[in-house]
Amino acid sequence: xEMKSRSGQGLxxxxxxxxxxxxxxxxxxxxxxxxxxxxxxxxxxxxxxxEDQFLLSFKTIEEIWKFxxxxxxxxxxxxxxxxxxxxxxxxxxxxxxxxxxxxxxxxDHMATMYLGLLLQEGNFFARAVLNVLTEEEEExxxxxxxxxxxxxxxxxxxxxxxxxxxxxxxxxxxxxTIEPLPHPxxxxxxxxxxxxxxxxxxxxxSDSLQIDQGRCTxxxxxRGRGWDELSFCKGDIIEVQGFLIPGLQWFIGKSTTNGTxxxxxxxxxxxxxSEQIRKSPVFFSEEEVVSFLQVPYNGNEAHYSSLLxxxxxxxxxxxxxxxxFEPVAVFSQTSSDAILRGLKDGWTLEGWSRQAANSLPTPSxxxxxxxxxxxxxxxxxxxxxxxxxxxxxxxxxxxxxAGHMEDSxxxxxxxxFLNQRGYVAHFQGxxxxxxxxxxxxxxGFSNEEELVLYLETSRNWAKKxxxxxxxxxxxxxxxxxxxxxxxxxxxxxxxxxxxxxxDKGFDDMPLLTSLYTHLAAIYLKQKMKQKFxxxxxxxxxxxxxxxxxxxxxENELEVMMYILRxxxxxxxTALEVRSSFxxxxxxxxxxxxxxxxxxAEHLQFLCASFSSQDSRALSLGTMPILSYLYDKKYLPHIxxxxxxxxxxxxxxxxxxxxxxxGFILKNASKLLKVQERSCNVPAVxxxxxxxxxxxSHEKSAVxxxxxxxxxxxxxxxxxxxxxxxxxxxxxxxALGKVIGEEEVFESSLxxxxxxxxxxxxEKASEIMLCLLHSLRQTDSVTQDGVxxxxxxxxxxxxxxxxKSAENYLWALNKARETGNRRNQAIALSNFGCLALSCRANxxxxxxxxxxxxxxxxxxxxxxxxxxxxQVLLWLAQSQVxxxxxxxxxxxxxxxLAIALMSRNMMSQLHVVESxxxxxxxxxxxxxxxxxxxxxxxxxxxxxxxxxxxxxxxQVLGQLYQSLHTTRSLKRALDCTKQSLRIFIDxxxxxxxxxxxxxxxxxxxxxxxxxxxxxxxQAAIQTALKPGExxxxxxxxxxxxxxxxxxxxxxxxAVEYYRGGAVPLARKLKAIxxxxxxxxxxxxxxxxxxxxxxxxxxATLAARLSMDVGDQLQELVAFHRLATVYYFLHMYEMxxxxxxxxxxxxxxxxxxxxxxxxxxxxxxxxxxLTLNKLKDEQDAASYFLLALAAATELSDQTWQNRIQExxxxxxxxxxxxxxxxxxxxxxxxxxxxxxxxx
Length: 1237
Fold this sequence. Notes:
Elements: E1 2-5, E2 10-11, H1 13-28, H2 31-39, E3 43-48, E4 53-57, H3 61-73, H4 75-84, H5 87-91, H6 93-98, E5 99-102, H7 107-121, E6 123-128, E7 148-152, E8 159-164, E9 170-174, E10 178-180, H8 184-192, E11 215-218, E12 237-240, E13 250-255, E14 261-265, E15 269-270, H9 286-292, H10 301-312, H11 336-341, H12 349-358, H13 363-368, H14 379-384, E16 396-397, H15 402-405, H16 408-418, H17 428-431, H18 437-440, E17 442-443, H19 448-464, H20 468-484, H21 488-501, H22 509-525, H23 529-545, H24 556-570, H25 573-590, H26 593-613, H27 623-632, H28 636-645, H29 657-667, H30 674-677, H31 686-698, H32 702-718, H33 722-739, H34 741-757, H35 761-774, H36 781-798, H37 801-818, H38 821-837, H39 841-857, H40 862-881, H41 885-901, H42 905-922, H43 926-942, H44 946-961, H45 966-986, H46 989-1005, H47 1009-1024, H48 1029-1044, H49 1053-1068, H50 1071-1087, H51 1091-1108, H52 1111-1127, H53 1131-1143, H54 1152-1171, H55 1176-1190, H56 1196-1212, H57 1222-1231
Parallel strand pairs: 16-17
Antiparallel strand pairs: 1-2, 1-5, 3-4, 6-7, 6-10, 7-8, 8-9, 11-12, 11-15, 12-13, 13-14
Helix pairs in contact: 1-45, 4-28, 10-29, 10-32, 12-33, 16-20, 19-20, 20-21, 21-22, 22-23, 22-24, 24-25, 25-26, 26-27, 27-28, 28-29, 29-31, 31-32, 32-33, 33-34, 34-35, 34-36, 35-36, 36-37, 37-38, 38-39, 38-40, 39-40, 40-41, 40-42, 41-42, 42-43, 43-44, 44-45, 45-46, 46-47, 46-48, 47-48, 48-49, 49-50, ...
């Protein structure tokens, strides 16, 4: 699988990597992929994401056939595109148009599997690869090269039993002389549609794809052997009627000499001399292509146009908007600039913005906007309306009165009508497959027996009157009625009588074709081989060579199948295409949608193959039919893929981009992810809506164009891309002016609201003021309130609180005047938001409570429930601001209850996020926090947001870890491992490494020592592999912290600190990190009582701290160094380091904490000099300084302890109690750097 850029003509590496990450995620959870490939008739074995590959298996030939067909038609690539890419991809129309996904398979492996399944089945069709003419054994079958044979395994090693489709002869066939038909469709078709008649000699194989049209030159003289064969002389110019298909014995020609029409043998003309109208493969006429589309497609153009209009509707003109609240779905955000650059239609945002500004309704132009309303009907809308049929078919009353049956005058009307020489439009009902003449042409009969009697009598009168055309058509109708009642022998008599009577049948070509086809079908059904072979050549010419054949019986299906079978057997590709087309048409007319699908797929496969060879070939456009058929069979992935590949060609009467956009919108919900179902315009429809918009603009369909702009604006807003929504809404405003005042007013409201959401309050205010001006001449209270509400929102964002409050009051009064409780509640809620912004929390609470009461009084829909949830969240927040935690908890949980009751997943997510924050930061409660995080995880799984799920699982694991119980640690480990799998799938290096580390920490707490080392090393290697040295350095330190902060194996922290973190810190010149690690190493060695090692690290830390230049860091380093010296009994050095720390502080105390530090250090110095250095005089000096610092504290107990030590010194010593002051000098001397540590 490769993601290619059409413009770059190479791989799109960014998309390729995005697809690969998605595949990694699907490797662990492959339900979606299995479901997709199951629909594609394949079995997923595994995903090989690193190689961008899928390993598939097939158990039946039918599975290989279906999958290979889907692959050839491009469905597999489209399905993978829908599966692998996020809404951000589909919202970028330029990227979608530029991307081409190519999917290839190992052809050799597929061929091997196909052949193996055929041999396993032991019953298949094959072609002779060489002539088998030797008759060494009587049982051996004589074959010619390329002859089609049906073979069966009879247990013989070298020979199988074979039946020739050309001769119906059986015999043994050497295995080495045959080769199975390569395409599985042919195996399926030949097995499921066997024929009682062998292959005729009327059709020959032909490799030519050129079906000739125009004129050709006769190469011999020829005299027709019957009325239906054309006579001509060598050199005569013959005009081809319809097509001249290579390999057929006959075609229909018209002599340019005398104008007669008849059958012409293809061997009598030179196709090379024909005037070819097209130099590319042509299999269908333009009329056939258009008529082929006149079948139900699960909704026509008008249906989908109205669907798009419904989607474009909004309630913004009648329902107020909650300040800043728009239920935006949780999708990965895409840069608005990137989306705008990728807009497909090519109109600039600036130009449309200016038009939108100029299009805002004013009293002068709003009156004029209605003048063109009636005259603005577009060509598009008129194209969708059916043309009235003013032609009424003549009707004939069936009168079986005995007297009337003997009166020829009674039958004159019907005989005159049926005796017309050529074909007229009124005869269509006589020939069509629905037997419409039973109701449209004849009436007054109670059953078909009466009609048969009436037609028999008419036939006799036609014979007596030598009314040849009436005689023929009556026999044809009688034959059709016999076929309808399965009286085939009697029908054959009527049809043969009609043919024998006919002498100028080409004047009514549909009648001639139907007669020959009915006879061939009956001959085939009754196994009249000779008669069938005598007519099949001409039947093929009439049916396949003349475009627009009108089917008149279901029995014709057997003839069509025979022709297709013979085309396959002889390898006549051109005839295969034509016959497949006819089979599909007949199945569709019969409504046999299950049976038609394989033939429609095969037809599209053939057409796609020829189109790839020659792009000028006329496209049939089978994709809409296939989309409809797949939809009926509930194959949503393939249905959307088929619609994705449909390319509107602009042919008159053909389907347009509007049909495609409507079909995708209507059917996308069957396969879309859960988070998009809440959005009635899914992102996958963006590209098709843009195409439909461009088409509507081209056709000047202003109403449809505006609807497209409104739908696109709504879609981008739902996906959080407000700037793109503004872009299309600006277009809708400009287009609304052309339609009418109501449309431009509604679009302008939407645009103003979008500006407010997009932090463009000035533009929003400008629009609302203009709309208020236009409403002065109207009495629309609701619209006036809507505009005031939106104006107030814009003014609030501009900081004009007073004016905002005035407009909110206007809006509230208008809502009260109309009695609209929902609008009242919204206005009150907006008042509450305004009060919150002014920190008037009590006032905000009053407004919110009034709004909540109103919401509970009326039964609102989903939108009203979401609004209520948001208001309750605001109310809870106002309670938090007032420190009313119990009340805020009540409102949070009430909001969650309403969201759960309405089953609104988005609202639940917002509330649970607020509750999780509340119980983790505002009112800490680990148990409650765990409960809401677990619910949040279930919502993330519901939305299929893997990144959110991974982050929440990681946090949940930390919450469980904080409980420090055996059960909670196991649960924490489970959550951490789940998040680890997700981050690995998403390719998140940093989060993956941190999660490995978290799992190692959990194993440490669970005392699983072997696993601890493995997980910590995995975390470090995850960072080192891509060269993330800063991350690796931090992970080494954090891995050491696991042991440093624990109780067992603390010495193992040294290898992570000294062996990993320190070298990387020095390499990266991260002095702060290196210093921090040395501090930890010092503290660790002190705890382990390795004081010599501690001295080494403490000395290094002291040196680094001086290099850093941070006095606080230096103080910490020297204090820790003093502690190490103390433990090493180096008391003089300890004293000097303590004094150094004191010199690093300001002489004047800066606060209670500093005073406490001074007091404790001086007290420590006093103890050291008194007990270790035995210097009572210095000790007294230090204690006096400690007491001086302690006086700044309110801790009397601490002061008493110092005084007791001083008293002890004075009581035991007799030296002069006076303070000499040298200790202070010594501290100052040390601080000036006169003593080297």
